[in-house]
Amino acid sequence: MRDKKTDRPDASAASRRPATLVTLAGRDPAAHNGFVNTPIYRGSTVLFPSVAAIETLDQPYTYGTKGTPTTRALESAWSEIAGAADTVLVPSGLAAIDLALLTATHAGAHALVVDSAYQPTRTFCETILKRFGVTTQYYDPLIGADIAQLIRPETTAIVLESPGSQTMEIQDVPAIAAAAHEKGVCVILDNTWATPLFFAPHRHGVDLAIEAGTKYLSGHADLLIGLVSANAHWAKKLRATFNAFAIGAGPDDAALALRGLRTMHLRLRAQEQAALEIAHWLATRPEVSRVLHPALPDHPGHPLWRRDFNGASGVFSIVLKPVSKTAVAAFVDGLELFGIGFSWGGYESLILPFDCASYRTATVWSPEGPTLRLSIGLEDVEDLKADLASGLARLGA
Ligand SMILES: *Cc1c(COP(=O)(O)O)cnc(C)c1O
Questions:
Q1: CA-CA distance, 143 to 25, in Å (whole number)?
Q2: What's the total number of domains in the chain?
Q3: Which of 50, 83, 384, 386 has its CA 20 to 30 A from that of 136?
Q4: Domain containing residue 355: CATH number
Q5: 345 in ligand 1 pocket by Cβ < 6 Å?
Q6: pLDDT given for residue 13 in this prediction
Q7: Is residue 5 part of a domain?
């Protein structure tokens, strides 16, 4: 809830626990005739009562691109949950990354991007940013405080993603943020895997945090939305960049995201539990060489995960022992409960073979066998295990 006078989260909200916060955040029933949820406001034009009023723009809403009560409800809810000063909504997670990078770079600037970043982040850097005179350098996700050695006078942004897309490396976010801030560099984190419920981005030194709300915030594979939250230092600059583009998310999408928000903590905990059980079980299987899950004690990033995270979501990867491509296809194609497709974080389980060897440049990715990413949904764990067990049996057939 917001304090009506200051439009800031009221003091009591700050002490509320996450499950309570997600039920309260971004709601103001009294402002909507008592209805529990903020209605869907569709609109471009907002009317002003007078010439004087339109000259000063002195009212909460001025034009559709600047937001509606529906989009603002999600923005303020997310700011509270992420511990941010402000949040903007865009039509996809990738658009959120792009907007953050455009907020923190300029012609002649240098950006440091983690080698394990979501691949389209790299594409944006290699195409649009490059065309506007920004150079990108990729760095080892395990670099930690040594990032200081890569920061140049013209470096303006460091992009992190933890765990890394597909390969699940955990980054030392506070150490990298400290090195960045010593040189006035903006720290951008793609926090989609953990969400602010499992990793509090701004408390760990992140300036701009990205969430592909398409994943766990939606939770139902029926929505594309991206969020960028900013700390107090970057909030104004983020909002100005957002206003210049006017690429907001629509009110219907914001309402769907708000609906997802109310159960996100329950889905995350259930998917965490199920994914952990399946990850532990896969680690015992003779067909599996390694399980890449940061909550498993033998994961190299486990100590950092324990130190910084409040939980693990339902996405992790596995490295199989060497087998043919045909065998992997037999494993995956025959699964009945795991769909094959992009994205993740929905109620339905997904599996995807991946190979990031071709585009990593700062590190070498050469696993001992084929690699697969799993997104565990809300199905019964025993059913999922049985499906995977028959799939693993097909590897040897
Ligand atoms: C899916 C994903 C995105 C992009 O989200 P879209 O809404 O699909 O554009 C960004 N970052 C990460 C880590 C993702 O997994």
A1: 36
A2: 2
A3: 83
A4: 3.90.1150.10
A5: no
A6: 54
A7: no
